[in-house]
Amino acid sequence: MENIRRWRLILGECAEAEFAPPLTGDDEILDGALAAIYDKTSGFSYGGKDGTSGKSVPFIAKWLGDIRRFFPEETLVVIQNDAINRQNMTQLLTEPELLKTVTPDINLVTMLISLKHKIPERAKDAARQAVREATRKILKEIEPELRQSVSSATRLRAHSPVPSSVVDWHATVKKNLGRFDKERKALIPEKLVYFRRGVRQNPWRVILALDQSGSMAESAVYASLAGCVLASLPSIKTHVVAFDAQVADLTESCLGDPVDLLFGLQIGGGTDIGKALAYCAGLATVPERTLLILISDLYEGGSRARFYGQMKALTDLGVKCVCLLALSDKGRPRFDEANAKALAEMGVPCFAAAPGTLSKVIASAINSR
């Protein structure tokens, strides 16, 4: 009986005649909520004929309440995104009372950032709050590993067995914890840990170059938040450069509110990777201690010759370069295979990465692995 019920819910209203008894109670409500998104033949709609009408708001609110009754949060996110993409329920993003009830996630953030100019004034506070909640979740997932891995990688290359005038007191104390003199109430270090000469004057510089084209929206959001974390680390200098047909340096914004940084992105538009690389070259003041991470699907809208020339110039100078075709948990990304092959032939690895592995990418590049 349970299998019959589940098949009826899967097949939708068009299969009603094939099953008995008909759905009732909660099953009928669940069927209606799913039909509103997935069954084009049912004629059922929470939003009425006019999806933009203010009258549809109570119906969408009811729909949101219904799906929350039956599904866990991870499933809610999928259905919510399908509602926007399949049924154009953009009122989920433009009505403050609805925004307060949606489940914030990376997809909601990218939609709100992409549609920021269309969000009415009355919904802007709710939109920012939704982005803030999603940002908090994302940072909770990526920040600890990013801090630990990158800090460890820079420390690994920063120390020297040769005494210098600069002692790494944090590492020295950690290394000599077993030599605490209880009578003197003092730590008596057996061996000091020294910074390598010049490290503090020339720390590692990490440049994140973010493609803002529509297809890279999710990757740009993840990379921007990663930039905020990296900018707070004293062991490296971080630059966040966003580009479409123009180039915008968002580095200073990384030190402020992450929500302001995200709303500063300009999702959509052309792509000029060559122009972005030319700007990044000006930031690589110590090339041998610079890591450039280009986050792009490599669909170049500008001069391909300039793109190749700028990348080759950077690698010839000694800048470590990596191209992430996507920074996402989704499947294999679409990208320009010819451009990826050209970069690979220059010694620039091109691959997709999950957001949680960005820390390993940076640490491996710094330590030449």
Give structural notes.
The chain has 369 residues and is α/β, with parallel strands linked by helices. It folds into three domains: 2-103, no CATH class; 142-195, no CATH class; 204-366, von Willebrand factor, type A domain (Rossmann fold, 3-Layer(aba) Sandwich), CATH 3.40.50. It is 47% helix and 12% strand. The chain contains 15 helices and ten strands. The strands form three sheets. The chain has a six-stranded mixed beta sheet, with helices on both faces. The chain has a two-stranded antiparallel sheet with strand order 1-4. Helix 2 (25-38) crosses helix 3 (57-70), helix 8 crosses helix 10 and helix 12 runs parallel beside helix 13. The longest helix has 35 residues, at 124-158. It is globular, with a radius of gyration of 26 Å. It starts with a helix and ends with a helix. The model is unreliable at 47-55 (pLDDT under 50).
Strand-helix topology:
Blueprint: H1 2-11, H2 25-38, H3 57-70, H4 73-87, H5 91-94, H6 96-99, H7 106-114, H8 124-158, E1 159-160, H9 169-175, E2 180-181, E3 186-187, E4 194-195, E5 204-211, H10 217-231, E6 236-243, E7 247-249, H11 258-263, H12 273-281, E8 290-295, H13 304-317, E9 320-327, H14 337-345, E10 350-353, H15 358-366
Parallel strand pairs: 5-6, 5-8, 8-9, 9-10
Antiparallel strand pairs: 1-4, 2-3, 6-7
Helix pairs in contact: 2-3, 7-8, 7-10, 8-10, 8-15, 12-13
